[in-house]
Amino acid sequence: MTLELTARDQSMLDGEQGPSAAAAMKILVAFSNAVGARGLLDITGAHIDGCLYHGKAGLDFVERLVEGGGRVQVPTTLNVGSFDLIHPGMVKMPAAEEVPARRLMKAHLELGCQATFTCAPYQTRFRPAFGQQVAWGESNAIVFANSVIGARTNRYGDFIDLCCAMTGRAPAWGLHLSENRRGRILFELDIAEPRDSLFVGVGLIVGQASGDRIPVISGLPRPRDEDQLKALGAAAATTGAVALFHAVGITPEANTPDEAFHGRAPEETIRISQADIDHALSRLSGVADGTPLAAVSLGTPHFSHEEWMRLLPMLREAAPGRGIPIYVNTGRATLTRLQEEGALTGMEAFGLIPVADTCTYVTSILERLDGVVMTNSGKWAHYAPGNIGVTVAFAEMVDCIRSAAAGQVMRGAS
Amino acid sequence: MTVATVDRRGTFQLAGEADGLALVFSQPLSFWGGIDAETGEIIDHSHPGLGQNVAGRILVMPSGRGSSSSSSVLAEAIRRGTAPAGILLQRPDPILAVGAIVAEFLYDIHMPLVVCDIAGIVSGDRIAVRVGEEGEAVLHKAQ
């Protein structure tokens, strides 16, 4: 199987459109050959997960593209970086690390990327439409784009997402192609109440059990909003490598089981009971109720405007006054909108600390790491202990806020 | 070493020449979370190679594994000189290919990444990777 390039692809490869496009195309061609793609296809957008500083090679790559006069060829959003550029001073980092990490974020802007710095590009005006081909990095964004929107991307990452953006092309393979979007493993559940934690629990289980097979979930209660599906996908992409799930009657490529499975039978069927959900969630919590609380962290993936509209009344009602910080990670566009609406006025009295452009588990924001942090995010609960060394208690959002008011972990209060 | 008989041929994912002692694993190793780019040491606690060092070796395994962040770790290891001298895989791997190509692009270091039959190669074999006349990978082995 050989890769066929168009005249325009070949012209980029030959350097006729500058050294940066040539480098990007060369890498894209090698990647395409490695995955056995027969050609490249046009994309309408890209989302780059390249703004977290992991070493000099990552920065050198972007700098070389900048020096070569490169520009992204399609609207391109950026994932979180190591800093909150909106709230200077929030992230504490030695200068030797800060300089290259800041430069990495800025260098991406010089390539023409949008200063979104969010892991939820689907909450921005750059959200793709059903059926559109995109090249996205960031696991939760990938699974959301494919599953909830029905846009099409593979799991892109390091360097290759940017190469797609610089050329406007992606390898024609995997989830870009209809035949590869077929469900293969069925998860059946019969649980009526659409609590937020149910969606997290289902995601954790589906991620763990699916392997490289596309999961189909039947019997999922109708979600209140797309944030519950966001939480499901983020959890599934945390415990596994899920890039696409179908939920029968809910997601756009699964109006019926037959549609989700492309008319074929599932290779395996797994029942999910309430006990399975409880077990999966209990593994995210290392502490008993009554343990003193150090902080709350919400918004992983980034809090949507709708989630803010649910949180703010909870804060007013519980009125936490013990000075326990309630960090909420959110996109800068969402934050700007809230500020324009005046929605956050007076909220700092309850301990609210909005965090933009980054996330509390990828950089040093939390003032105290010695206590228990509560979160309603399955993804945060999974990664934060390893990343920043905290003890986590997972709970529904309302329990997180009531616990902040009580100064100790309280769950099941709803 | 004296390059004598051709032991086997393969396909380059990234062309280059290398000499080194084979480090063979039957289980794939993820560079991200599996190798410390500062030292080349294997740090994956679930991998049988834990504690061994890949720097300067000819790393031989069936395939790559895991997160796309492995591209960055491989590129960074090549930059620091802690990467394997070459990698032989049974199956092509897009993640490692991207890391090797990016390192070549940035630093002009050609760490050969070869897809070939890996049967019969054992740790400690002295392997030489050369570029054949048709651009194919040519492997020589001395015990």
User: Quaternary arrangement of the chains shown?
Assistant: heterodimer
Shape of chain A: globular
Give the terminus-to-terminus CA distance of chain A: 58 Å
Largest interface by Cβ-Cβ < 8 Å: A-B, 24 and 27 residues
Helix/strand class of chain B: alpha/beta
Helix content of chain B: 10-25%
User: Which architecture of the largest domain in chain A would the CATH scheme give at its second level?
Assistant: 2-Layer Sandwich
Q: Mind telling me the CATH class of the largest domain in chain A?
A: Alpha Beta
Termini separation of chain B: 11 Å
**Strand segment count of chain B:** 7
Sheet with the most strands: spatial strand order of chain A: 12-11-10-13-14
Q: C-alpha Rg of chain B, in Å?
A: 14 Å
The major pleated sheet of chain B works out as: 7 strands, mixed, barrel
The helix content of chain A is: 25-40%
> What series of H and E elements makes up the topology of chain B?
EEEHEHEEE
How many DSSP H or I helices of chain A? 14
Strand content of chain A: 5-15%
The structural domain count of chain A equals: 3
Contiguous low-pLDDT stretches of chain B (5 residues minimum) are none
Protein traits:
heterodimer; A: 414 residues; alpha/beta; Aconitase, domain 3; 3 domains; 5-stranded parallel sheet; 4-stranded parallel sheet; 14 strands; 15% strand; globular; B: 143 residues; 7-stranded mixed β-barrel; 2 helices
